[in-house]
């Protein structure tokens, strides 16, 4: 851990966190996890370990809004263990550190991960007045257009342009559902706490179609959609006995989302490669592209 003055020299923007704390921190260290930002963990006398999540050029490029993240965290406090909002200002949000340990794929089944996601989705769009509490409503086309517009001209942008144009408009669906969606839900954002399993990193969260969130999670878990949907519906029914979901319509809509979800992820990886100067992300992007082409989705 760096002492506070050393941390400020390395990252002057941390002074904004000190303003929120209203005390001089004991020190800080940069967390290695997290691909969107390099988050700082700050030691304090009053709150113990805290986490500063700042407004940066990187977060802006990924279309991350810290105000939205703050509002989501405040809304889900009673739903499951997660970080507490300690304060915020125009430069970022300060969160409590969620004590616990990371969860590996070996110790938590994919079925359990899906059941946790279903529990989050019981916080339905109908029950949330997102405009009042300041939680974003997700717009797929706006999101992928934003990613595309952030990309500098390159051979990679040219390579993926036809795919982007083809898939930038979402498909037509059988059902119209909305819920609070995490949009980065898998083992890497789950923590074993003293209470149960906690969920972190809500920065991409929005009120959106839960089937898109489910598709993104199933893709990360490498689980087929029919099996994943069965697990999801079983867990969802246990959480909300009044839920009425048409399995076949949901499965059809999940399949309709699939290529669009993968294209959105592809653009995210290309943007990450550009922002961090790390070509390893391009390997992931190209893998998605080849998978879509094998499925006859490329031109």
UniProtKB/TrEMBL annotation:
It holds the Pfam family APH. Signal peptide: none annotated. InterPro entries: Aminoglycoside_PTrfase, CcrZ_PhaseVar_Mediator, Kinase-like_dom_sf. It comes from the Bacteria. Residues 30-230 form the Aminoglycoside phosphotransferase domain. This is Phosphotransferase. PANTHER family: CELL CYCLE REGULATOR CCRZ (PTHR40086:SF1), PHOSPHOTRANSFERASE YTMP-RELATED (PTHR40086). The lineage of its organism: Bacteria, Pseudomonadati, Pseudomonadota, Gammaproteobacteria, Vibrionales.
